[in-house]
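User: Hand in any protein.

Assistant:
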Amino acid sequence: MWSIGGIFLLLIYGIWLRSYKYRKKVEVEPVSSPLSLAIQDLIGTAGGIYLAITLLISFLKIVIPDKIIIFAIEVEPIALISILLAVFQPVIERIIRWVRL
């Protein structure tokens, strides 16, 4: 009985060692998809716009509401404007390039 259990434990240990060596050798790097890169760019651009608008509003002492309701969804107006500007920025840029030609 001990021999079967011992062989089984050695087998499990050998498999674990092989998988451990394999995990040490193979370095898997995450591959970014075009969608994830686009979302990162959108969030980064929207964040920069949000900071700029927030600083401008603070500097000019403009009073705006904390929340607005659009289609039964409560959103912050500065965040909404930032996301919309970030989404439409490439479209506006392409129109400007088209008009200049």
About this structure: The first helix runs from residue 2 to 25.
